[in-house]
Amino acid sequence: MPGGPGSASDFAGTPDFDGVEITDSSTMAGVPDEFQRLWTPHRMVYIQSGTQPGADECPFCIAPTLDDEQSLIVARGTHAYVLLNLFPYNSGHLLVCPYRHISLYDEASPEETAEIASLTQTAMRVLRTVSRCDGYNLGMNQGRVAGAGIADHLHQHIVPRWATDANFFPIIAKTKALPQLLGEVRASIAAAWPVA
Protein backbone atom coordinates (compact mmCIF):
# COMPACT_ATOMS: atom_id res chain seq x y z
CA MET A 1 0.00 0.00 0.00
CA PRO A 2 2.00 2.95 -1.30
CA GLY A 3 2.64 5.67 1.24
CA GLY A 4 1.20 3.71 4.16
CA PRO A 5 3.06 2.92 7.40
CA GLY A 6 5.90 0.49 6.77
CA SER A 7 5.85 1.04 3.02
CA ALA A 8 9.02 1.09 0.97
CA SER A 9 8.91 4.90 0.95
CA ASP A 10 9.54 4.87 4.73
CA PHE A 11 12.90 3.24 4.10
CA ALA A 12 13.89 4.78 0.76
CA GLY A 13 17.53 5.81 0.66
CA THR A 14 18.51 3.78 3.72
CA PRO A 15 20.76 0.71 3.49
CA ASP A 16 19.34 -2.56 4.72
CA PHE A 17 21.39 -5.13 6.69
CA ASP A 18 23.09 -6.39 3.51
CA GLY A 19 24.13 -2.88 2.48
CA VAL A 20 21.59 -2.83 -0.36
CA GLU A 21 19.67 0.40 -0.75
CA ILE A 22 15.89 0.16 -0.56
CA THR A 23 14.26 2.32 -3.21
CA ASP A 24 10.63 3.36 -3.41
CA SER A 25 9.50 2.18 -6.85
CA SER A 26 6.61 4.67 -6.97
CA THR A 27 9.07 7.35 -8.08
CA MET A 28 10.49 5.28 -10.96
CA ALA A 29 9.39 5.07 -14.57
CA GLY A 30 6.74 2.55 -15.49
CA VAL A 31 3.15 1.72 -14.72
CA PRO A 32 2.54 1.13 -10.99
CA ASP A 33 0.70 -1.98 -9.90
CA GLU A 34 -0.59 -3.47 -6.65
CA PHE A 35 2.53 -5.52 -5.87
CA GLN A 36 5.37 -4.59 -3.53
CA ARG A 37 8.71 -6.12 -4.49
CA LEU A 38 11.26 -7.76 -2.24
CA TRP A 39 14.46 -7.86 -4.27
CA THR A 40 16.22 -11.18 -3.71
CA PRO A 41 19.21 -11.41 -6.04
CA HIS A 42 20.53 -14.44 -4.12
CA ARG A 43 17.72 -16.46 -5.77
CA MET A 44 19.47 -16.15 -9.16
CA VAL A 45 21.03 -19.57 -8.63
CA TYR A 46 17.55 -21.05 -9.06
CA ILE A 47 16.57 -19.17 -12.20
CA GLN A 48 19.77 -18.68 -14.20
CA SER A 49 19.51 -20.52 -17.49
CA GLY A 50 16.21 -22.04 -16.37
CA THR A 51 17.82 -25.30 -15.26
CA GLN A 52 18.39 -27.14 -12.03
CA PRO A 53 21.88 -26.85 -10.57
CA GLY A 54 24.24 -29.69 -11.46
CA ALA A 55 25.30 -32.25 -8.88
CA ASP A 56 28.51 -30.26 -8.32
CA GLU A 57 26.44 -27.10 -7.61
CA CYS A 58 23.59 -28.70 -5.65
CA PRO A 59 22.94 -26.63 -2.49
CA PHE A 60 21.92 -29.79 -0.60
CA CYS A 61 25.22 -31.48 -1.48
CA ILE A 62 27.26 -28.36 -0.69
CA ALA A 63 25.55 -27.53 2.64
CA PRO A 64 27.05 -30.45 4.65
CA THR A 65 30.56 -29.44 3.53
CA LEU A 66 30.17 -26.04 5.24
CA ASP A 67 29.92 -25.19 8.91
CA ASP A 68 26.46 -25.42 10.44
CA GLU A 69 25.96 -21.67 10.89
CA GLN A 70 26.91 -20.89 7.29
CA SER A 71 24.74 -23.65 5.81
CA LEU A 72 21.84 -23.21 8.30
CA ILE A 73 22.12 -26.86 9.41
CA VAL A 74 20.42 -27.56 12.73
CA ALA A 75 21.19 -31.29 13.04
CA ARG A 76 23.30 -33.95 11.31
CA GLY A 77 22.52 -37.63 11.25
CA THR A 78 24.32 -40.60 9.70
CA HIS A 79 22.36 -40.70 6.42
CA ALA A 80 20.47 -37.38 6.44
CA TYR A 81 20.56 -33.91 7.95
CA VAL A 82 18.19 -31.04 8.80
CA LEU A 83 18.58 -27.41 7.74
CA LEU A 84 16.51 -24.27 7.54
CA ASN A 85 14.92 -23.39 4.24
CA LEU A 86 16.71 -20.31 2.88
CA PHE A 87 13.35 -19.16 1.45
CA PRO A 88 10.93 -20.10 4.25
CA TYR A 89 7.14 -20.13 4.08
CA ASN A 90 7.13 -19.55 7.86
CA SER A 91 9.79 -19.03 10.54
CA GLY A 92 11.34 -22.39 11.38
CA HIS A 93 10.63 -23.93 7.95
CA LEU A 94 12.98 -26.93 7.92
CA LEU A 95 14.17 -29.33 5.24
CA VAL A 96 15.31 -32.91 5.84
CA CYS A 97 17.75 -34.09 3.17
CA PRO A 98 19.72 -37.27 2.61
CA TYR A 99 23.43 -36.69 2.11
CA ARG A 100 23.27 -38.81 -1.02
CA HIS A 101 22.31 -36.96 -4.21
CA ILE A 102 19.07 -38.72 -5.17
CA SER A 103 15.95 -37.14 -6.57
CA LEU A 104 13.02 -39.40 -5.68
CA TYR A 105 11.79 -40.93 -2.46
CA ASP A 106 11.67 -44.43 -3.94
CA GLU A 107 15.42 -44.17 -4.64
CA ALA A 108 16.21 -43.74 -0.93
CA SER A 109 17.63 -46.71 0.95
CA PRO A 110 15.77 -48.18 3.94
CA GLU A 111 18.38 -46.54 6.21
CA GLU A 112 17.86 -43.15 4.57
CA THR A 113 14.06 -43.32 4.75
CA ALA A 114 14.20 -44.41 8.41
CA GLU A 115 16.51 -41.53 9.33
CA ILE A 116 14.49 -38.98 7.32
CA ALA A 117 11.40 -40.12 9.26
CA SER A 118 13.19 -40.01 12.61
CA LEU A 119 14.68 -36.56 11.95
CA THR A 120 11.25 -35.30 10.85
CA GLN A 121 9.68 -36.48 14.12
CA THR A 122 12.46 -34.87 16.17
CA ALA A 123 12.16 -31.64 14.17
CA MET A 124 8.43 -31.50 14.91
CA ARG A 125 9.05 -31.95 18.64
CA VAL A 126 11.80 -29.31 18.66
CA LEU A 127 9.67 -26.81 16.73
CA ARG A 128 6.78 -27.40 19.15
CA THR A 129 9.11 -26.66 22.08
CA VAL A 130 10.95 -23.69 20.56
CA SER A 131 8.13 -21.94 18.74
CA ARG A 132 4.97 -23.37 20.33
CA CYS A 133 3.48 -24.06 16.89
CA ASP A 134 -0.03 -25.47 16.62
CA GLY A 135 0.47 -27.68 13.57
CA TYR A 136 2.69 -28.54 10.60
CA ASN A 137 2.69 -28.91 6.86
CA LEU A 138 4.89 -31.86 5.85
CA GLY A 139 5.65 -32.75 2.29
CA MET A 140 7.92 -33.65 -0.59
CA ASN A 141 7.55 -32.25 -4.08
CA GLN A 142 8.78 -35.03 -6.33
CA GLY A 143 10.04 -33.67 -9.65
CA ARG A 144 9.96 -30.24 -11.23
CA VAL A 145 6.44 -30.69 -12.54
CA ALA A 146 5.31 -31.23 -8.93
CA GLY A 147 6.84 -27.94 -7.79
CA ALA A 148 10.25 -29.00 -6.46
CA GLY A 149 12.57 -25.99 -6.37
CA ILE A 150 15.60 -28.30 -6.33
CA ALA A 151 14.18 -31.36 -8.07
CA ASP A 152 17.41 -33.35 -8.30
CA HIS A 153 18.02 -33.72 -4.54
CA LEU A 154 15.34 -35.25 -2.35
CA HIS A 155 14.17 -33.06 0.53
CA GLN A 156 11.19 -33.04 2.85
CA HIS A 157 9.60 -29.80 4.04
CA ILE A 158 8.52 -29.27 7.64
CA VAL A 159 6.60 -26.00 7.93
CA PRO A 160 5.42 -24.99 11.40
CA ARG A 161 1.95 -23.41 11.53
CA TRP A 162 0.18 -21.34 14.15
CA ALA A 163 -3.52 -20.69 14.62
CA THR A 164 -2.72 -16.99 14.22
CA ASP A 165 -0.14 -17.16 11.40
CA ALA A 166 -2.51 -15.92 8.70
CA ASN A 167 -2.55 -12.16 8.23
CA PHE A 168 -3.27 -9.66 5.50
CA PHE A 169 0.31 -9.40 4.16
CA PRO A 170 0.28 -12.36 1.75
CA ILE A 171 -3.18 -11.46 0.44
CA ILE A 172 -3.11 -7.65 0.32
CA ALA A 173 0.58 -6.81 0.14
CA LYS A 174 1.81 -10.01 -1.59
CA THR A 175 4.45 -10.19 1.17
CA LYS A 176 5.27 -12.85 3.78
CA ALA A 177 6.29 -11.45 7.18
CA LEU A 178 8.96 -13.46 9.03
CA PRO A 179 9.55 -12.26 12.59
CA GLN A 180 13.08 -13.66 13.12
CA LEU A 181 16.30 -13.68 11.12
CA LEU A 182 17.41 -17.08 9.82
CA GLY A 183 20.53 -17.14 11.99
CA GLU A 184 18.49 -16.58 15.15
CA VAL A 185 16.01 -19.29 14.20
CA ARG A 186 18.84 -21.73 13.39
CA ALA A 187 20.55 -21.07 16.71
CA SER A 188 17.37 -21.62 18.76
CA ILE A 189 16.44 -24.85 16.97
CA ALA A 190 20.00 -26.23 17.08
CA ALA A 191 20.26 -25.43 20.80
CA ALA A 192 17.02 -27.31 21.52
CA TRP A 193 17.91 -30.33 19.35
CA PRO A 194 18.48 -33.40 21.55
CA VAL A 195 22.04 -34.72 21.67
CA ALA A 196 22.24 -38.25 20.34
List the helices and strands and how they pair.
Elements: H1 8-11, H2 44-47, H3 59-62, H4 68-71, E1 73-76, E2 80-84, E3 94-98, H5 110-131, E4 135-139, E5 156-161, H6 168-173, H7 182-192
Antiparallel strand pairs: 1-2, 2-3, 3-5, 4-5
Short description:
It is built from 7 helices and 5 strands. It has 196 residues and is of the alpha+beta class.
Give the CA-based shape.
Answer: globular
| Main pleated-sheet profile | 5 strands, antiparallel
Helix percent reads 25-40%
Cα gyration radius (Å): 19 Å
Provide mean pLDDT, rounded: 78
CATH level 1 name of the domain at 58-192? Alpha Beta
Beta percentage is: 5-15%
| Sheet with most strands: strand arrangement | 1-2-3-5-4
Could you walk me through the main structural features you see in this protein, from its secondary elements to its overall organization?
By secondary structure, the protein is an alpha+beta fold. It has a domain at 58-192: HIT-like (HIT family, subunit A, 2-Layer Sandwich), CATH 3.30.428.10. Helix content is 28%, strand content 13%. The chain has 7 helices and 5 strands. The chain has helices at residues 8-11, 44-47, 59-62, 68-71, 110-131, 168-173, 182-192; strands spanning 73-76, 80-84, 94-98, 135-139, 156-161. A 5-stranded antiparallel beta sheet has the order 1-2-3-5-4. The longest helix is centred in the middle third of the chain and has 22 residues, at 110-131. The radius of gyration is 19 Å and the shape is globular. Mean pLDDT is 78; it is low at 1-18.
